[in-house]
Amino acid sequence: MSNLLNKPRQMPRQIPGRSRLSAFKLALFCRRAVAAVEFAMLAPLLILVMVGVFEFGYYLNQSTSLDKSLRVGAMLAARSSLPLSGSVQTTIANLVKTGTADGTGDYVVPGWSNGGSTLAVTTSTYSDSGVDYDVIRVVASVPYEPVFLVFMQNQGFGTLTMNAAHEQAFIGN
Q: Closest Cα partner for 66 from 157, 136, 145?
């Protein structure tokens, strides 16, 4: 008895002389290629989700790289003498943008090549209980350059901008 229950369903044969409607009814109960049809229906949604996850991961990667480069620039500025000279500010900008002091390397974040990116290095003084502390602040705004630009534009995303800042207490040289 259990052998009969475990047998796969077979498509009924069409008997000559039956109407097309009964052949259509037979086709409705046919289970062949159901998985292929379901995959064809869900594949666009699956691809959309995969591209979105990949793009979000790439955004996080670029954002983390920007944060790390700002930290390095702020640490250099904190160890330099105040006020920051033009050459020190140029070195800081090179470190933040390319990861090298002379600025010869590739950009750490691809958006630096865009004209819409900004970098600012400022100093300020904070007072606490009558003691003054100098603080260096490095602020950047860099456009995000997506991997799938057409996908981002088709989904209604305009230009995304990564904004980051890092503060470092002045240590001195």
A: 145
